[in-house]
Backbone:
């Protein structure tokens, strides 16, 4: 308060002397205006802080969106397709009676057809040999398909391990989804292998059963001819195929 008092004394003394002080020499402090200015500055600073926080949140949202939209760097599609193609090739290499409806119908209307009296002895023997060769080839085909599927197991093991590792390190929703889709594709490939193995084994068993049934039917026809007088059927030609 002493400076103010000194200033007031100086001003009063100047008035007494008739001296006019310059306007800049008069300093006036307005507490109300000062408080208002401080509050205004504080509000502006808070607004700036809010804007900075909002920008930070938006930047984090963009980062998260980029992670969620990032593609998975690993793909097992090519390996899975190769495994499926190998199994398909083995099935396509089926010998003699393949996986074809027309071929099956033709075989069962000829070599697997019931033996009749109109068929020659040589035809009966030829049909029996054909049926045995069909069964032999089908058994070999089934073993080859099974061997191919066993060969795919190591590839499946490697792909499963890689996909599990990728799922653990997935950085976003898209990568996690892609990992899940590839695991489903791997399971579908394994199911396809099991289906192929079952089909190959079933084919071999069906042809073996058909061979046995035809052999029994042919055996009865051969026995009938042997026992029927006047057939001209020599006992040395009697052959039973089982």
Residues:
């Amino acid at each position: 308060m002493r400076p103010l008092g000194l200033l007031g004394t100086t001003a009063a003394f100047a008035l007494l002397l008739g001296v006019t002080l310059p306007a800049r020499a008069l300093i006036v402090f307005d507490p109300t205006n000062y408080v208002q200015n401080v509050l205004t500055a504080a509000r502006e600073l808070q607004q700036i802080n809010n804007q900075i926080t909002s920008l930070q949140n938006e930047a984090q949202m963009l980062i998260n969106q980029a992670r969620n939209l990032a593609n998975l760097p690993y793909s097992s599609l090519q390996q899975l397709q190769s495994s499926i193609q190998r199994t398909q090739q083995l099935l396509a290499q089926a010998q003699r009676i393949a996986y074809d409806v027309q071929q099956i119908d033709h075989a069962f209307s000829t070599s697997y057809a019931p033996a009749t009296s109109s068929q020659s002895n040589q035809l009966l023997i030829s049909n029996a040999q054909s049926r045995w060769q069909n069964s032999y080839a089908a058994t070999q085909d089934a073993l080859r398909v099974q061997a191919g599927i066993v060969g795919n197991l190591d590839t499946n093991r490697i792909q499963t391990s890689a996909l599990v590792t990728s799922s653990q390190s997935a950085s976003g929703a898209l990568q996690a989804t892609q990992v899940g889709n590839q695991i489903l594709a791997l399971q579908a490939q394994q199911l396809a292998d099991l289906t192929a193995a079952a089909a190959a084994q079933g084919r071999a068993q069906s042809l073996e059963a058909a061979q046995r049934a035809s052999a029994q039917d042919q055996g009865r026809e051969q026995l009938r001819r042997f026992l029927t007088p006047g057939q001209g059927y020599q006992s040395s030609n009697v052959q039973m195929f089982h």
Notes: The CA atoms of residues 143 and 186 lie 23 Å apart. The two ends are 131 Å apart (CA to CA). The helical segments are 2-17, 31-68, 77-92, 101-109, 121-168, 173-227.
